[in-house]
């Protein structure tokens, strides 16, 4: 790494540390923002059908022929994240498409509910092979581009006959607050600091993710299915949208209809 890159890295780390220190100092003066997602009063189940919450994100029960089954919150999630964290989890299954696991983690006053998503993925035993920032056209409430981070990952496991099998996965995520969208973790942190300084509001960020496993070589097909799913489902539970796109770009979203 050359001198210029070291300087850029040092400045970035200093800014991140400064942001964290400032947020801690002003903690008692913070006013919590509103979620950027639709909320609903509903029992949230943990392991052994134990009720672990009564407030959650209104993930739709059906999307494009997928049926969304509620998924329990794991004990590791409850013990490793702050008690004011809000969870929403569904597994969407279709007759002819790969299942899609949708998870939402919504912070409360404790910012540590939201962390770098790559940590979650590797913690589940996946190896990240590639990452890519891109956008997905969303048609409602108007045409806009949803920023997402797409990760491709791999995992090895033992089959029933003891043979080693390789699995692949497509993992897509983004962050949403009361009035912002981003797929970049550092940008979310810096925006949070800016909003706190200028408005006194601690934005209540949510981390939304979609995961689909597949055999090697099927990643492209699975991601196309996931894009269609995201385009159809996001307007059902997300309150925040991006800037309206010009009418000069109608064909971008038309392919998702």
Layout of SSEs?
Elements: H1 3-25, E1 31-32, E2 39-45, E3 51-57, E4 62-63, E5 66-70, H2 75-80, E6 86-93, E7 100-106, H3 117-123, E8 127-138, E9 144-158, E10 164-176, E11 181-182, H4 185-199, E12 201-202, E13 206-214, H5 219-237, H6 250-254
Parallel strand pairs: 1-12
Antiparallel strand pairs: 2-3, 4-5, 5-6, 6-7, 7-13, 8-9, 9-10, 10-11, 10-13
Helix pairs in contact: 1-4
Tell me what the structure shows.
The protein has one domain (31-254). Helix content is 29%, strand content 35%. The protein is built from six helices and 13 strands. The protein has helices at residues 3-25, 75-80, 117-123, 185-199, 219-237, 250-254, and strands spanning 31-32, 39-45, 51-57, 62-63, 66-70, 86-93, 100-106, 127-138, 144-158, 164-176, 181-182, 201-202, 206-214. α1 (3-25) packs across α4 (185-199). Mean pLDDT is 85; it is low at 7-16 and 250-257.
